[in-house]
Write a structure and sequence with these properties.
single chain, mainly alpha, two-stranded antiparallel sheet, 10 helices, globular
């Protein structure tokens, strides 16, 4: 029988492969368009959105099977995967996908209006597109994980690091436990996985104090000084309480989103 660690690695590799395939398709479709007028963008949206949603459903199915397998390995009792709702995992943003996937064009047009070269503006647009695809797959993952874990009676979860898109903030957060209903505080580009914390128990906020110290040692090695409050990572913030620096903000589309406490999102009022 596989170990929990093998199950986690296998799952992270599988969902990464799905995300990578869809991101590659979207990038090639955008760069191969040749023209990016309104009618061209409409065509690209019709081409890309179904692929993104198919990837989201597959990601959710893999997530459901993974969590069931993980619990089976740990308990020795066969656990059936939870059902996947296509509508739920493809609408986590609360914004029509057709509107979301016009945003890369807005990014490109804005860059052009600000004097960017055409090549650079196109690249800014495709970078926005790839970010949207990645975030939508992460939202499908977290949406299904929340549903699966809640259905099995889990209260707490933790993040697992894949070693691909993990920043220092992810690494710090992976040493903590979070409530399932806040699953998963993310940031754009994040690809963290999810693991369970034993049902019916609360191990406390910090799960791995030794690894947290290792992260601080890496900061010291990088910046030439120690700072247990992670002030270097937080732009020189004077506070020294790590748990006071890392927080969860409510993002209008992503939901609970991991961030430094002083970071805030641009909302509709500011855009108007």
């Amino acid at each position: 029988m596989a170990t929990p660690e093998q199950v986690i690695v296998g799952y992270n590799d599988a969902v990464h492969a799905v995300r990578q395939r869809v991101e590659t398709f979207a990038r090639l479709a955008w760069l191969g368009a040749g023209s990016w007028r309104d009618a061209d963008i409409d065509r690209l949206v019709r081409l890309i959105v179904p692929r993104v949603q198919a990837g989201q459903v597959l990601t959710a199915q893999l997530t459901s099977a993974y969590l069931a397998s993980l619990e089976t390995v740990r308990t020795g009792e066969r656990v059936a995967p939870a059902l996947v709702s296509r509508d739920v995992v493809t609408t986590a943003r609360g914004v029509p996908a057709e509107d979301v996937y016009r945003r890369p064009a807005v990014t490109m047009y804005t860059a052009l209006s600000n004097g960017a070269q055409v090549k650079d503006a196109i690249e800014q647009g495709v970078n926005r597109l790839v970010s949207l695809v990645g975030t939508d797959h992460q939202l499908a993952k977290t949406s299904q994980a929340r549903s699966s874990l809640t259905g099995r009676g889990f209260t707490y979860m933790r993040r697992t690091l894949t070693g691909r898109e993990n920043c220092a903030l992810c690494a710090i957060a992976s040493t903590q436990r979070y409530r399932v209903q806040n699953l998963m505080p993310i940031h754009p580009g994040c690809d963290c996985g999810v693991d369970t914390v034993e049902a019916g128990s609360d191990p406390g906020q910090v799960l791995e104090p030794e690894r947290l110290e290792t992260i601080h040692a890496a900061i010291e090695n990088e910046f030439g000084g120690t700072d247990r409050g992670a002030r270097y990572l937080d732009g020189g913030n004077s506070r020294s309480d790590l748990l006071d620096l890392v927080t969860v903000h409510e993002h209008g589309e992503y939901g609970p989103t991991l961030a430094w406490r002083e970071q805030h999102f641009t909302g509709p009022d500011a855009l108007n």
